[in-house]
Amino acid sequence: MLNLVLFGPPGAGKGTQSQKLIEKYGLIHLSTGDILRGEITQGTTLGLEAKKLMDDGKLVPDEVVIGMISNKLDANPDAKGFIFDGFPRTVAQATALDTLLEEKSTAISGMIALVVDDEELEKRLLERGKTSGRPDDANPEIIRKRINEYNTKTTPVAEFYKNQNKFTSINGVGSIDEIFTEISAVTEGY
């Protein structure tokens, strides 16, 4: 089973490249935001618990998110693999994900990080903001905060996967196809 963590700051191209990986390798995209919204819409026990926390302005605890991921893995027993997008964001989450996958007799194959300099990210997000309708893509100050937050909080997760020899960084600047060719070459190695 091919299980990838696709990593990169906002605007690095994760969504675009995830779609191409799904098409080429038949993987299932696991976006924690989408999973959370889906569980809430379906009214599952975990979804109701998450909604109550979110309504109170609290973060959804890792155990709840891991439980939702577990449900998604169980719901797709014939999957060729999964792309984890937006998760893990902390070493605690990465450790919990490793434990969960081990219980299901699989593991993370590798983490691929798209590297894009901050100036390019800001330019891309402002451009995306013109069409996305997302206010956080239209405000340069918020964009810089999001990029800084990513750089500060996720560096330890990259180290976690480096220590397992499962980390590869790829230049996220260039044509979509050029970047995908590099990602594919790394993926073939897994």
Stretches where pLDDT falls below 50 for ≥5 residues? Answer: none
Largest sheet: 5 strands, parallel
Strand percentage lies at 5-15%
Q: Let me know the average pLDDT.
A: 91
Q: Return Rg in Å.
A: 17 Å
Q: How helix-rich are the residues, as a percent range?
A: 55-70%
Could you give the distance between the termini? 10 Å
Total helical segments: 8
Query: Helices and strands: which structural class?
Result: alpha/beta
Number of strands: 5
Shape: globular
Give the SSE order as H and E letters: EHEHHHEHEHHEH
Which strand order does the major sheet show?
2-3-1-4-5
Write a short abstract of this structure.
The protein is α/β, with parallel strands linked by helices and 190 residues long.
Quick tags:
globular, alpha/beta, 5 strands, 190 residues, five-stranded parallel beta sheet
Description of the structure:
By secondary structure, this protein is of the alpha/beta class. The chain has helices at residues 14-25, 32-42, 45-55, 62-75, 91-103, 118-132, 140-162, 176-189, and strands at residues 2-7, 28-31, 81-85, 110-115, 167-171. It has a five-stranded parallel sheet, with helices on both faces. Helix 1 (14-25) crosses helix 8 (176-189), helix 4 (62-75) runs parallel beside helix 5 (91-103) and helix 6 packs across helix 7. It is globular.
